[in-house]
Design goal:
Two copies of one chain form a homodimer. Chain A has two domains: about 120 residues, NAD(P)-binding Rossmann-like Domain (Rossmann fold), CATH 3.40.50; about 190 residues, 3-Layer(aba) Sandwich (Rossmann fold), CATH 3.40.50. In chain A, helix 3 links the parallel strand 4 and strand 5. Helix content of chain A is about 35%, strand content about 20%. In chain A, the strands form four sheets. A six-stranded parallel beta sheet of chain A has the order 8-10-7-11-14-15, sandwiched between helices. In chain A, strands 3-2-4-5-6 form a five-stranded parallel beta sheet, sandwiched between helices. Chain A is built from eleven helices and 15 strands. In chain A, helix 3 packs parallel to helix 4. At the A-B interface, helix 7, helix 8 and strand 13 of A face helix 7, helix 8 and strand 13 of B.
Chain lengths: ~325, ~325
């Protein structure tokens, strides 16, 4: 499983639009204690409001990696950023990138990293060989966030749930399956980058056998109702063998984002589909509640909506941004 | 999509056990018209009974590729085979391998192939970038062979069904998704080698839009009930958008092979699971029959078994090796 060297120095390149630095802002907000500062080219028009550090200064303060926290148009690495990356390598930092272009495709970077003994880590790619799934039950408890679609709060719900479990004295680990989650937590498996034969096997590796009362809180990916990504979702579900799932949903979406011909099913049906599929590797899987991204609803509409769902499904209904996920943590720990 | 240069010269290395040359025997039996001859090292203890040709002789007779038709213990390429592969490259043949070791990891082979302008093709690996699935409906008709487990006749059923459709005057193409199928037909996508984000997308590329009455007969992979491979199965099902599925089954198996804790579901339930999942991308998907690998049954037991299944499920039940797949082809073409 991938393990990153933290803390980070966040690289901003020379981007001038905040939305192009989404990853850097996310790390600042969600993993502030793992970020030492920011490093930008002179032409940059964006700042995170963190201490400006050179790679050498960051290394002296204990930084382990320079994280490329920006997504330049097209996903490729602009050649005029290379000198800054070389400066970081020279300072002894690993370089961590979520870009499409592999860092190692730049021969000079690869040579320099080898000579300096640091790593070029492409979070979007997977070079780790994984075994095929075994389906064998393992000790420890697991909860997986699943969704009616992509990008509606599965990662955020899992992070909040990990905190809530720990606040109750439970041993819990967030298990990241996407690049932002991996950057936040410092490790994980980019599950959608794994060779398809090994999806379930990679999920088994991600949440290994643990103490009987320990919870792995696994970040879900995709959706069973998504025409492109349901295979990833199913393999992750099977390999995770979750004891519990949390269904994540955004009530403002009538159909899968970008796929208007694919309606989002009624929530009861969605839960049934996940439980039916999950029973293959864990016959006791149950749904402990719903996590709603209610950002489009007014306070009173949210109250009405949540109350209606609770009555209809007989399950806790939360929005992590509106009151937290305590009800989900309580349901997980209920005897 | 991968396209191989046919016809083939089959390479046997120096294996001495027939079962280690399974791929070569399979190609001899299933794609005889695409095989010119065999080429073995002096120490080989196995022959296919085909003309023995040197790479040069084969090239002069029009061969396009040398196919490594053997699986040495461990899946690695024995170094003492390299001289024979170099001889084939020198003769202008592509080298096609289904081994775990990539041919291109041998620098001398890679250099020589580049210089000679031939390809090193690793059928087990996928270097083709595929798009994400779109879910968009496309013209043409598709049938997918699905299964209650792996390795019970999905490829053979699809090959036989392609022949039967053509025999009825229908336009039909076999679409290979595994390495043996790819070698037989000369092209396809090794679906389990695709990056998991692109399973459905690769399946869409494999069976592109076609004439309205044209049938793609798609080789299924894995099983929805398999703890390791269901993700591949689901992505292939969604991307294939089949109008029809054929359920393949081996009545001698009570559980998934190698996974005794995973029982094979009742066949009616298995059909329901495939249709429910398939409806996401083709709401009209139907099951047109069952293809049974009945090799463990006596003639009379087979008759009894098939009659019982027909009555129970109301569907045609065939064994491609015992009477062929005519009933499936008729069901596909029925108005």
């Amino acid at each position: 499983m991938l393990q990153l060297r933290q803390p980070y120095l966040l690289f901003l390149g020379d981007v001038s639009v905040k939305s192009d630095a989404k990853t850097a802002f996310g790390l600042r907000d969600w993993a502030r204690d793992k970020v030492l500062g920011e490093f930008a080219l002179p032409a940059a028009g964006v700042s995170l409001g963190l201490p400006a550090l050179t790679p050498r200064q960051a290394a002296e303060q204990g930084a382990g990696s320079l994280v490329i926290g920006v997504a330049p148009a097209g996903g490729a690495l602009p050649p005029h950023w290379l000198a800054a990356l070389e400066e970081a390598i020279e300072a002894g930092l690993d370089i961590v990138s979520g870009l499409h272009t592999r860092l190692s495709s730049f021969e000079r970077l690869a040579d320099q990293a080898r000579a300096r003994g640091v790593r070029l880590v492409d979070v979007r790619h997977s070079d780790t060989p994984f075994p095929a799934g075994t389906g064998a039950r393992r000790s420890g408890r697991r909860v997986l966030t699943v969704g009616t679609d992509c990008a509606l709060g599965k990662k955020y719900t899992a992070l909040a749930l990990t905190d809530a479990l720990r606040a109750r004295g439970a041993a819990a680990d967030f298990r990241a399956t996407g690049q932002t989650g991996i950057l936040i937590t410092g490790g994980g498996v980019a599950i959608d980058a794994v060779i398809s034969d090994f999806i379930a096997g990679a999920a088994e590796v991600l949440s290994p056998a643990a103490a009987p009362e320990h919870w792995d809180v696994i970040e879900g990916q995709g959706a069973l109702f998504h025409p492109a990504y349901a295979g990833v979702t199913l393999g992750l579900l099977h390999g995770s063998q979750p004891d519990a799932v949390v269904l994540c949903h955004d009530p403002s979406r009538a159909s899968i984002e970008g796929h208007p011909a694919f309606p989002i099913p009624p929530l009861g049906e969605a839960i049934d589909a996940y439980l039916r599929a999950g029973r293959l590797t864990n016959p006791a899987v149950r749904c402990v509640g719903l996590s709603i991204n209610s950002s489009t609803l007014s306070d009173s509409d949210w109250s009405t909506y949540a109350a209606r769902l609770r009555a209809e499904l007989g399950l806790p209904v939360v929005d992590p941004m509106r009151g937290g996920v305590d009800a989900l943590a309580d349901a997980l720990l209920a005897p």
